[in-house]
Write a structure and sequence with these properties.
Blueprint lengths: L5 H12 L2 H4 L5 H5 L8 H18 L1 H6 L5
Helix pairs in contact: 1-4
Family: Belongs to the PET191 family.
Pfam families: Pet191_N
InterPro entries: Cyt_c_oxidase_assmbl_Pet191 (IPR018793)
Length: 71
């Protein structure tokens, strides 16, 4: 279960690496992903939400019993 979100994390990092936030502004990935007003593409925003929900599911006891919804 600890690695069930790893694929999403790698996709998110790859998507963020191609944005202006990281390329032009030279900001870290974590900072770009955590912005309230995103300067990133809608694809990256969707990946970010899915990744955060995956991580949230790891602490939710109901999801821990049933298993995290896989990637």
């Amino acid at each position: 279960m600890a690695k069930s979100c790893k694929g999403l994390a790698m996709e998110l990092v790859k998507c963020l690496s191609e944005t202006d936030c990281v390329k032009v502004q030279k900001r870290p990935h974590k900072e770009c992903a955590g912005e309230k007003v995103p300067n990133i593409t809608s694809e990256c925003v969707g990946l970010r939400e899915t990744y955060f929900n995956c991580k949230r599911g790891q602490v939710d006891m109901r999801a821990r019993i049933r298993g995290n919804k896989g990637y």
